[in-house]
Write a structure and sequence with these properties.
The chain is an alpha+beta fold. It has one domain: Mth169, Chain: A, CATH 3.30.1280.10. 34% of the residues lie in helices and 27% in strands. The chain has two helices and three strands. A three-stranded antiparallel beta sheet has the order 2-1-3, covered by helices on one side. The longest helix is centred in the last third of the chain and has 16 residues.
């Protein structure tokens, strides 16, 4: 099963990289962009019997290593391969 994990900083956590990108966009004439937040996306192929099991395994991976759950949230999408 193909699994996509999107990781982002929790609301209220400062995002200095996002702020730097926002300032750069403004200096390039894209002043309409605001509240820029930088995250990461991880794609995995998980050998699982069904989508629920793939989701469960990915969540465990996020809790243990992929995300810093103190400051980051994650969202898991299991894509249908059929």
């Amino acid at each position: 099963m193909k699994v996509v994990v999107n990781i982002s900083l929790k609301d209220g956590v400062l995002d200095p990289q996002g702020r730097a990108v926002e300032r750069s966009l403004a200096s390039l004439g894209f002043a309409e962009a605001s509240n820029v937040r930088i995250g990461k996306q991880i794609t995995l192929d998980i050998d699982a019997e069904d989508a629920a099991r793939a989701h469960q395994r990915a969540a465990r991976m996020c809790e243990q290593i992929l995300a810093n759950t103190v400051i980051e949230d994650y969202e898991i999408t299991v894509e249908d391969e059929s």
